[in-house]
UniProtKB/TrEMBL annotation:
Listed Polar residues bias regions: 411-423
Primary residence: endoplasmic reticulum
Key word Ubl conjugation present: no
Residue span of region Disordered: 411-430
GO cellular component: endoplasmic reticulum membrane
Molecular function per GO: acyltransferase activity
UniProt GO BP: lipid modification
Name of the protein: Membrane bound O-acyltransferase domain containing 1
Length: 430
């Protein structure tokens, strides 16, 4: 009913997408199921591209952007369909030793029934704005095991409990609803005052100095963020209110309701690396990309993951500018961190100076990268990058060409720093 009310005739495509995937799941051998699902999604994207190319050229190159009402639920459908396909493949389509520990934990051991499949996709909590959840987590929630399974990981008798506690989401839901309301107010107040497209205005480019234009882009991108804070926090609150999203107990003994949270606002605003920002922005989508692409790509996982993310978001050129630009910036940030961070860990002052400088650079990198995502069209994007002299593209390429990708270990370079160990220099680094 919610989908029909919100999307009207577009809902027919939404339903047909899911029912066609049901047929694929039933008819196709589980060993190659995920391949068929991927092919279908790529074909679907290609169809959308063909439809847009049949429109006047100005729809793509200028600002007459075609608005697709059901794009958000279609994106969530794509995540859920491919997630289930890969987890079925991990559960009954591979040998036991082939999946990674994480893949084995999330693997689905049997094909879902039609009711389970449709419930997973059409449940009222996530049909409009998500977020995507793992199939096993959702089934545990539906069958009443969701909270008890997480609570059983703690020895409650040592804490003085005779039986398992019953965590309530009330406080968390009220907090998230308040946060979403504040985000909505901030977006309505500032988004019209600081439009991103003003940064491509000819008079502004010709008259404002470079630093002023840089500052304006930063403010304009900041004004755009509350829109996403509002939507994702509200969606998380809806799931929590239904009882879904419990994630155990933290170190202080507090109940956590962040199993399917989509962002961490504090970590986003204080991010000291490009990766730290990405890891805390649209968290469930990042987890989906990691599960279906990054962890499975035989080569070039970073590049392939960003390309898949661009395809998943849609066909507007701004998406591709954003995610293709993110590839060299991510790789350059990783190289810079590996080469220089170890020199700033010897004292608190140096570490603080490092954190402040990397926060500043990260904010500039994010603004430079995501501006095309907001602009959508190619013409303002190219105009924006020309006005910025492509400076982050150039810096990233120079860093990748000049610095070693795999520097010597700190022990070999500076014996005095052998006690310093960076816990985030692996693929989980921030």
């Amino acid at each position: 009913f919610l989908a029909s009310f919100c999307f009207g005739v577009y809902n027919l495509y939404l339903y047909s997408f899911r029912y066609l995937c049901v047929c694929v799941c039933v008819c196709v051998c589980v060993y190659i199921l995920y391949i068929y699902i991927y092919i279908y999604k790529i074909s679907d994207v290609s169809l959308c591209q063909s439809c847009l190319k049949s429109l006047p050229h100005t729809y793509i190159f200028n600002l007459w952007i075609l608005y697709t009402k059901c794009s958000s639920p279609l994106m969530i459908v794509t995540q859920k369909v491919t997630t289930l396909a890969f987890q079925l493949h991990d559960g009954i389509g591979q040998k036991a030793e082939e999946p990674t520990p994480e893949q084995r934990k999330l693997a689905v051991k049997a094909r879902p029934s039609l009711l389970e499949y449709l419930s997973y996709h059409f449940n009222f909590m996530s049909i409009l704005a998500g977020p995507c959840s793992n199939y096993k987590d959702y089934i545990d929630f539906i069958e009443g095991r969701h909270i008890s399974t997480k609570l059983s990981e703690v020895n409650w008798k040592q804490k003085g409990y005779d039986k398992l506690p019953e965590p309530s989401p009330l406080g968390v839901v009220v907090y998230k609803m308040f946060l979403s309301l504040v985000s909505l107010v901030l977006f309505l107040l500032f988004s019209k005052t600081f439009p991103v497209l003003y940064s491509t205005d000819d008079r502004f480019i010709n008259e404002a100095p470079f630093l002023a234009r840089l500052s304006y882009v930063y403010i304009a991108i900041q004004a755009c963020r509350p829109k996403y804070y509002f939507a994702w926090t509200l969606a998380d609150a809806v799931n929590n209110a239904a009882g879904f999203g419990f994630n155990g107990v933290d170190e202080k003994g507090n109940f956590k309701w962040d199993l399917i949270s989509n962002l961490n606002i504090w970590n986003i605003e204080t991010a000291t690396s490009f990766k730290m920002y990405i890891d805390n922005w649209n968290i469930q989508t990042a987890a989906w990309l990691k599960r279906v692409c990054y962890d499975r790509a035989p080569k070039y996982p970073t590049a392939l993951t960003f390309i898949l993310s661009a395809m998943w978001h849609g066909v507007y050129p701004g998406y591709y500018f954003t995610f293709l630009t993110a590839i060299p910036i991510t790789l350059a940030a990783r190289v810079m961190r590996k080469n220089f961070r170890k020199y700033f860990l010897s004292s608190r002052m140096l570490k603080a100076a490092y954190d402040v400088s990397t926060w500043f650079v990260t904010q500039l990198a994010i603004c430079y990268t995501v501006a095309p995502f907001v602009m959508l069209a190619a013409e303002p994007t190219l105009k924006f990058y020309r006005s910025m002299y492509y400076y982050f593209h150039i810096i990233s390429i120079v860093v990748l060409l000049m610095l070693p990708v795999k520097p010597q270990s700190p022990l070999q370079e500076h014996p005095s720093t052998q006690a310093v160990h960076n816990n985030h220099c692996s693929k989980k680094e921030k």
